[in-house]
Design brief:
By secondary structure, this protein is of the alpha/beta class. The chain is about 40% helix and about 15% strand.
């Protein structure tokens, strides 16, 4: 759904979502981007980093990319 809508997905699910994203890219399927925020990262830092990413980038820059927080 996220790719069809041009949305970058934000998740704390490291094991499932990163593997699924890697599989999509390896298969040549479109992936609109994944931002991984591990649950040990304080929520204030996640929010701050997401706000920064939103300010300095656009969704197209995340195509087939996995970004790990914290920055």
């Amino acid at each position: 759904w996220a790719t069809a809508q041009g949305r970058v997905l934000v998740t704390q699910d490291i094991s499932t979502m990163t593997a699924a994203a890697d599989d999509r890219v390896a298969a040549g399927a479109a992936m609109s981007g994944l931002i991984v925020a591990p649950d040990y990262v304080p929520i204030a830092k996640v929010i701050s980093d997401l706000a920064f990413v939103d300010d300095v980038s656009n969704a197209a820059e995340f195509e087939n990319l996995t970004l790990w927080l914290p920055l």
